[in-house]
């Protein structure tokens, strides 16, 4: 049975020292990787810090926003993390979201063209083909795998052509399988083996013995994603078009209560692991059966603080490793 990865969020508001302590606990519990999201933080800097306090666990950026980094600088930072971790880095790349970029004054343009371009430059830099003012960049002692955040099937297809793996999130097992198949088809079309493309999927977890309490927490926790255009389209294409439309309309009114109310229990069950342990484990197995090589557990607090929820979920899901 494949082990699970575990996502730890620096955006949770916990002190940096507590974030690193949780990373140590995730490693000690036997998880296959610590995956670090990025929003108001630097995922590569966080990865470097995690490399210093762990010894075995893989460390993944989940994901770094390519629009915030000149690609040779991204490559140089990744090489430093790879060196510090003795070869444990997975460089997850993604394009973020148009509203988040526009808030920073950044024009997204064609996101997949940008992802293709940056991947090419990063790979060339890491292989020693790029120089600046006569100075070559350091090369990692071990290759750094590049994974793509692939909410759209077109990005999964690009991943099959150029990447080493996919980082999927908020999708049903069936949608996940479709993305994997698209990537595998693209890999074969470009002379690659489908086995070269690793499949990871992030699974939001709302663990609680009372299912109704867990559902209420999931409604609050998932509403944010429905207001982002990429995720909204993904939710609609996963069979929840009415809910996706209702969430976006409520978001335009800045009505958080209505956003949460638009998220139905069937939708929650399709996109997250919710309720008691046994129920969550059963749903996890559905993702594994549909091809998830590394399910990534994404802990969510249910009437508790973030660190408490992480430790509780680590203890429960360590049984699956």
Structural class by SSE content: alpha/beta
- Count all strands and give the number: 12
Number of domains: 1
What's the arrangement of strands in the largest beta sheet? Answer: 1-2-3-5-8-9-10-12
Into which percent range does the helicity of residues fall?
A: 40-55%
The first-level CATH class is given as: Alpha Beta
End-to-end span in angstroms?
7 Å
Structural notes for this entry:
The chain has 321 residues and is of the alpha/beta class. The protein has one domain: TIM Barrel, CATH 3.20.20. The chain has 14 helices and twelve strands. The strands form two sheets. Strands 1-2-3-5-8-9-10-12 form an eight-stranded parallel β-barrel, surrounded by eight helices. Strands 6-7 form a two-stranded antiparallel ribbon. Helix 2 (43-53) packs parallel to helix 3 (71-84), helix 3 (71-84) packs across helix 5 and helix 6 packs across helix 7. The longest helix has 17 residues, at 173-189. It is globular, with a radius of gyration of 19 Å. 47% of the residues are buried. The mean pLDDT is 96.
């Amino acid at each position: 049975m494949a082990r699970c990865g575990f996502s730890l969020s620096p955006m949770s508001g916990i002190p940096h020292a507590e974030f690193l302590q949780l990373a140590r606990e995730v490693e000690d519990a036997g998880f296959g990787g610590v995956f670090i999201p990025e929003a108001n933080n630097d995922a590569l800097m966080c990865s470097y810090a995690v490399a210093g306090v762990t010894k075995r666990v893989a460390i993944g950026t989940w994901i770094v926003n390519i629009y915030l980094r000149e690609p040779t600088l991204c490559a140089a930072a990744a090489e430093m993390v790879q060196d510090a971790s003795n070869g444990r880095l997975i460089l997850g790349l993604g394009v973020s979201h148009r509203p988040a970029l526009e808030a920073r004054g950044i024009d997204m343009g064609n996101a997949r063209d940008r992802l293709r371009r940056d991947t090419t430059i990063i790979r060339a830099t890491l292989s020693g083909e790029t120089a600046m003012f006569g100075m070559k960049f350091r090369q990692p002692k071990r290759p750094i795998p590049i994974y793509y955040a692939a909410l759209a099937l077109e990005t999964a297809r690009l991943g099959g052509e150029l990447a080493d793996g996919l980082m999927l999130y908020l999708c049903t097992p069936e949608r996940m399988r479709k993305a994997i198949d698209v990537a595998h088809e693209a890999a074969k079309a470009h002379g690659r083996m489908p086995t070269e493309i690793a499949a990871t999927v992030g699974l939001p977890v709302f663990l609680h013995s009372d299912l109704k309490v867990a559902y209420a927490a999931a409604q609050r926790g998932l509403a944010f994603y429905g207001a982002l255009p990429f995720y909204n389209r993904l939710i609609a294409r996963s069979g929840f078009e009415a809910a996706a439309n209702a969430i976006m309309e409520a978001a335009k009114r800045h009505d958080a209560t209505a956003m949460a109310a638009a998220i139905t229990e069937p939708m929650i069950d399709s996109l997250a692991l919710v309720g008691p342990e046994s129920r969550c484990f059963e749903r996890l197995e559905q993702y594994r059966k549909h091809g998830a090589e590394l399910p990534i557990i994404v802990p969510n607090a249910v009437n508790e603080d973030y660190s408490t929820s992480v430790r509780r979920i680590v203890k429960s899901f360590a049984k699956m490793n």
